[in-house]
Specification:
heterodimer, A: 159 residues, alpha+beta, six-stranded mixed sheet, 3 helices, 6 strands, 23% helix, 43% strand, globular, B: 425 residues, nine-stranded antiparallel sheet, three-stranded antiparallel sheet, 14 helices, 24% strand
Chain lengths: 159, 425
């Protein structure tokens, strides 16, 4: 269990660093082929069919997001945002979900600065993690922001 | 500068977007007089149900009455002015102020006051918005007691609500899914102008068009990737084809554009099993002939001036809420076509998330452009903004004007309504 916990922590911290370093293609490699990246508008949503979401993306859709993040004509990232993803309070547990065996719950704070504007986002993250021959992969990432149903300016970099 | 001089021919002065005094006048003469969308009847099905809704800078309680009607009450105690409710409720028997416990009936009339014997007079109750009307389940209100009937205000755009309701096999809509809210540091009019600007997609949305082209396998991927890729690619229509998308403008600032989705799951009519089941349910309600007519209505954005954009095909709408000359919130809502298969509701949710979330690969670039325009207009490098694109191609008819998709006809039409409203004393 201690080994697994260290492995999970390393994965979550690596994910945060890859996002901050804008290594989006490598970030995406942490995700399983059938992964779901989901930021619902309400914590009571059990599935994306329950309501609107800030992000509701499959791995194939994330590929398009990442391809766009690497383009110079993506106006909302020109110039790019600088971000800091802080992951803390990581709890690792076994899961009986069909899609993954391990779950990680964490507190997530993202600071973002773009041009003259700085913003902060805070919420809880849930990672569903699957053991694959290539290592631990993210099958689900769900982020519940404390203000997910409030107005937000344009969002471009994933949480 | 006098208000009537801010629009001159096919140009508008930048003060229309930046001047707080113009903004204050807009609130007074446009937003306090127009019929504004408040919410949908399905949000408050039972007596005592209420929701909190903004109307032109004020907060209202939309309350279902015992007799089935709806009242729009100011959320402000008649005693010391405290907000009475802070969240929606179901089945309330009365409204109670938390400060000195003044209570009100569901219609806003005063029910009781502690220590009532100590008053020589009491107010009648909560202030009511003078006009509230429903059009096919969509609730609108205005602060102007002398406003025309809602149906007359909507004019040709009533057809957009008709089409959305007619697309429901059970004949009713139910609001669902909560809401998305987008905020930008720009003027409210930019959103309404951009909604019918068909030259911008090829440039503003180019990065999502190209990113989808770089990932052609997404079109054969899961439902989410397929719908997203089709939507992103649709913005890559060659210039001349945008011209063929019709733009219709009408008196009062209203307008709509034709559809431009041609392929796949987002095409107007499809052959897949879900759509076939949906179509059968629709035929059971309307018969074949009317079903054909309802489904043949292929429009994208329908704009009810000053601040509503409706998409009947995807059962969604956006309400534009000005906060300041340079600050705006857009609320996005969607509806269940009652009687349609569950998969249709999921298609609606995906459409709204993909097209209109703050994280949308499409909408996020629009917000960026609005903020760049606002930043540019704050400077004094030039006072006049041109809106003459396509002016030679307008075809005026009896009901309105038809223009090629690439025309700025909708912007000119919105400013005609804007000028008339601001100059009315």
């Amino acid at each position: 269990m201690r080994e697994l916990r260290e492995e999970v922590e390393a994965l979550l911290l690596r994910e945060a660093r890859l996002l901050d370093e804008r290594r989006f293609a490598e970030w995406l490699e942490l995700y399983a082929e059938d992964a779901l990246y989901w930021v619902p508008t309400r914590p009571e949503h059990r599935s994306p069919a329950d309501g609107l979401a800030l992000f509701h993306e499959s791995r194939a859709l994330l590929e398009i997001r990442v391809a766009r993040l690497q383009r110079a004509d993506m106006h909302v990232q020109s110039p790019p945002a600088r971000t800091l993803h802080q992951v803390s309070a990581i709890e690792v547990s076994a899961s009986s979900e069909p899609g993954w065996q391990t779950e990680a719950r964490s507190a997530l704070v993202v600071a973002e600065c773009r041009e003259a504007r700085s913003r902060w986002f805070a919420g809880r993250a849930l990672h569903g993690l699957r053991r694959t021959p290539a290592g631990l992969r993210i099958a689900l990432k769900r982020v519940d922001l404390i203000d997910s149903d409030r107005p937000h300016g344009a969002l471009a970099v994933p949480f | 500068m006098a208000i009537e001089n801010l629009v001159r021919g096919n140009a508008v002065h930048r003060a229309a977007y930046t001047d707080p005094a113009v903004f204050a006048l807009e609130m007074e003469r446009i937003f306090r007089r127009a019929w504004l969308y408040l919410g949908h009847e399905s949000e408050i099905p039972q007596a005592g149900d209420y929701v909190l809704v903004p109307l032109a800078g004020e907060e209202l309680l939309l309350v279902r009455q015992e007799d089935g009607s709806v009242a729009a009450l100011h959320n402000r105690c008649a005693h010391r002015g405290a907000r009475i409710a802070t969240c929606p409720a179901k089945g309330a028997r009365a409204l109670r102020c938390p400060y000195h416990s003044w209570t009100y009936r569901l219609d806003g009339s005063l029910l009781g006051v502690p220590l009532a014997e100590g008053y020589d007079a009491l107010p009648a109750g909560l202030a009511r918005v003078p006009r509230l009307e429903s059009y096919r389940g969509f609730l609108f209100a205005t602060h102007d007691a002398g406003a025309p009937a809602l149906r007359d205000y909507l004019g040709e755009l009533a057809s957009a609500f008709d089409n959305m309701v007619d697309r429901a096999p059970a004949g009713t809509l139910t609001r669902f899914g909560g809401r998305l809210q987008l905020e930008y540091r720009g003027n409210w009019k930019m959103f309404m102008e951009n909604a019918l600007d068909l030259v911008h997609p090829g440039y503003v949305h180019r990065s999502s068009v190209e990113a989808a082209r770089m990932n052609p396998e997404a079109l054969q991927g899961d439902a989410l990737a397929q719908q997203g890729a089709e939507m992103f690619l649709a913005n890559g229509l060659p210039g001349p084809q945008w011209n063929e998308v019709p733009l219709h403008t009408f008196p009062g600032g209203h307008a709509y554009m034709g559809g431009f989705y041609r392929d796949g799951v987002i095409a107007p009519q499809r052959a897949d099993p879900v759509f076939s089941r949906y179509r059968e349910a629709l035929v059971a309600r309307h018969g074949e002939e009317k079903t054909q007519r309802v489904l043949a209505v292929d429009r994208f954005n329908n704009l009810v001036w000053p601040n509503l954009s409706l998409n009947a095909r995807f059962a969604a709408l956006r309400v534009v809420r000005p906060l300041a000359a340079d600050r705006t919130v857009v609320e996005v809502q969607c509806f269940r076509l009652d009687g349609a298969p569950q998969e249709m509701h999921e298609l609606t949710l995906r459409f709204v998330n993909l097209a209109a979330s703050p994280a949308s690969l499409v909408a996020s670039d629009d917000l960026e452009i609005f903020e760049r325009c606002q930043a540019g207009l704050a400077g004094r490098a030039g006072d006049w903004i041109d809106m003459r694109r396509g002016v030679l191609a307008d075809e005026r008819g009896a009901a309105g004007c038809r223009s090629p998709g690439t025309s700025e006809a909708a912007v000119r039409n919105q400013f005609a309504a804007w000028k008339r409203s601001l100059c009315a004393s």
